[in-house]
Amino acid sequence: MELLKRIIAFVMDTLETVIFIASIFVVIYLFIMSPHQVKGASMEPTFQSSDYILTSKISYRTGAPQRGDVIVFKSPKNPDIDYIKRIIAAPGDKILIKDFEVYVNGTLLEEQYIASKTSLFPGGFVQEGVEVVVPENYLFAMGDNRPRSSDSREFGFIPMKDVIGKVFFRYFPLNKIGQVKNPSF
Fold first, then answer.
1. Residues 55, 169: Cα–Cα separation, whole Å
2. Which of 73, 77, 82, 101 has a 20 to 30 A CA-CA distance from 31?
3. Active-site residue, 34 included
4. Chain segment 141-157, per-residue pLDDT in tens
């Protein structure tokens, strides 16, 4: 009888600990940060397909999005799919793409993280030489691999309500583990 009480007490203590730890992970996952896997080539050379990253869900509750931040957001075409892109322009910024170059507020954007120039989509949201202004509560974002990225050039501004969070850490592959830094435009 005493042995049975000890076994039950041990099982209950273990179960209590497991439930407590699981609750902490659920709270972290739902409200603080979540893992994502990069799928596709749209962010090369910065991220490769199958890289694993952590996304902070609280960054933009405590601070404003900055040009150069890498974000994860719901696809405008299919909200079941998450996109990863780089913020190019924030609310109030003027963006112009002309002769394969990107201008923000009249200044040529120096983008050391891209491998090829910025082309446009025929019939896309952004037109050659036509300046657009990012409205309040929206962002303009593009992938680092411009020829292989479906982004704001095609579908327009990203509502802040669709932003899941800011990418802050890559944890796989192990040889590239580390903080994801803003290139500070």
1. 7
2. 77
3. no
4. 999 999 999 999 999 99
